[in-house]
Batch of 2 targets.
Target 1
Amino acid sequence: MFVDEVEIVVQGGRGGDGIVSFRREKYVPKGGPDGGDGGDGGSVILVADPSLDNLAPLTQRKHWKAGDGRRGGSGECHGANGEDLVLSVPVGTVVRDAERNFVIKDLVKPGDSVVVARGGKGGKGNAAFKSPTNRAPRIATPGQEGEVRRLMLELKVIADVGLVGKPNAGKSTLLSRLTRARPKIAPYPFTTRHPHLGRVIVDWNRSFVIADIPGLIEGAHAGAGLGHEFLRHIQRAGILVHLVEPEPADGTHPVQNYQVIRQELELFDPQLVKRPELVVVTKADLPGADEVRKDLEEAIGRPVLLISAVTGQGLDELVRQIVRILEAQGRFAASITD
């Protein structure tokens, strides 16, 4: 099960109570106060883990609580601190305060972490209150409650290249041809139900990550189809590769389809249409594919690539164009992890 959004409640541990205690030792007639402080409660910490690809593990529970601190002891013994609760989330998780609707932290790099609920402070034992004027204090303070927060966790896939287009435009087929990813491929719309990632190896020290995003339709920005759920996953992509099917099964015009998807991207996030974009006509083996490519070039005023993920036509040139843009963006340093 792929989960890219989850709401949870996190709570820091309660601080341990301080205690009232006095020394009771033989031959020590005036034993003073020796009540120890309570331990601090544990905190809840989120850590970005590159081995995870979605938020499904956090759906097991709604409420996550760190360990409580232990109460103090006699002999001025400090209570043990509560154990921190460390929750692993995928790289690219946006941590948001669900009640006040602000971003706490965007975990964009492996190992990024954030304390989302701090544990309560331990209470003071009576030894902390002794003074020249109060040699036998009989007071202690309780531990504080831990912080409680309701969080909205939202995963935005981190990829160098995002594949966009209408359903059945050939995104999954292209991803499977360029990488080792094996998304579901079938001759009907909405085959892709969640983003798939794959790594394209350019040479011995260069590679980039490409994401296959579920097909978009008109109205996607407002929730139509699957688009609204997954448009967020292309917000981090440095390049958009817009795939256009030359003979759509629904009889629509390829140029119009391109314009519709561009409009949906702009309505969802105006910054998306400012990203570098490669426009690609797929299924070059179809008779009218090259004519569609020419029509698109005339409509948008810039070159359009023609490829076939089945025969391999144009794939090398597509990769070269992607590499050229990534080099200009300086993104390769972040991609070389394998």
Note: The mean pLDDT is 85.
Target 2
Amino acid sequence: MIKIQYSKLRAAALILLLLPTFVFIVTWLKLGFAFLGAQLLAIALFFVLKIKDDRELEFKISTLVILAVGVAVWVYLAGQGGFFSQKGDHFYRNVIFRDLVNYDWPVRYHNEADESLVYYIGYWLVPALFGKIFTAMAGFNAGWLAARIVLFIWSFLFIYASILLVCFKLGSGKRKAMFVVLVVFVFFSGMDVLGIRNTDITNHIEWWSFNMQFSSMTTQLFWVFNQAVPAWLATALTLNEKDERAYALIGLGLLSTSPLPLVGLAVYMLYKAVIEFNSYAKKKEFAKFIKRVATIPNILAVVTILPVYSLYYRNNVASEGSFKFIGDHITTDPKVAIPAYIAFLLVEFAFLLILLINKKNKNDAIYAFAFLAFAPLARIGTEFDFCMRASIPALFIIMVMLIEYFYDVLENKEKRVHLQSLCLVVVFFLVGAVTPMVEISNNVRRYVETEGESAKQLDVLETLMDSTFEGRINFVCVDSANTFFYKYIAKADT
């Protein structure tokens, strides 16, 4: 048996979450800003790690090994590192990753438009740093392989830590608990198969309801791992926090990787803080509440991370689109849009959430329902990413509620469970599991049919500046020399 102390797991998770921000500050900013930012971030982390939490769980070594194998297989099947079939979005992610290995930091392209890389690149920074080291020693091929291997390990560590954190939320290190967590993690999804309007279920099936989509956990890992995986870790940390003393540091730790999921998590944090405020207000202990919120870690996170990334992201050309909350992007015909919207909510989460809600999780269920009802109606610019990505924390919370439900049934803790309700929950889960099974089977089928070539098919561009690549406008800023960030904050051009 191995005892895992929550304080040590929490420290490891916080380091994983904040390391991309730390690397960005140290390697992209001018020396003075880099030194100051790194110091303030280190101080914030130091004070967070001083917060005591004496929880610990016992795990069998074999249980941790089984979990490691399960996570590694899932990460491998997702195409992490380019060792197995990859989804279409990897076409963009691979070339961004390559540029981070190949170019000096900050990445500037020295072309006529004076373009520079401006994107949520945080997830790749640590693997790319290893790639740079090996490139310097043995050439790009060795560096690229090293970067890909480290990316695989990086994803593994994030997911492994997230699952252990969910086990702490569950309060159990038993093998059956680990089994429930891992299985639900991989197969949790909305019931997309009920909504598909054609007979082909061998490909991506989540675009069944016009421009609305809530992605399954497997879909998130397979398509948008760089945004989703850090958001899982941050949400799992937040669910285990006893108060708001580290909320800003945890949340803003997502700015480097997951700005849209951060919106969903920030709303959850604010909602929890309001509930907490009300309890203090009843006792007229306003000063005590302020003391719990206005902590050194929270303040330092706000003054360090927020301004740096605000100045960085504002240069991205694609970020100039305005935020809209109208819902006409679903379809312009309200007679179609309203029924489609209601059906989408019911099929994706509402039926299941109604069965899972109880006194213990009522507040989390209210947040999840409200935010997921709002998300499909919102849009940023011309894209539909808000619905898909800002929803990640709320979907994660529902997934944890489902894990708790199944585990309570297995442990006979759910004394009042009705057989009919249990059967419905199982049916909803199994129907939803079709979506991740489609994603996984599609990758396996393509790998077999192409005799392994599908692992390389989306790693074809040497750089974003490739003349055949027309989509780079989403990942760059132009006229870099005249932007505030590159003129005053970023390291000088070399």
Note: The first strand starts at residue 2 and ends at 5.
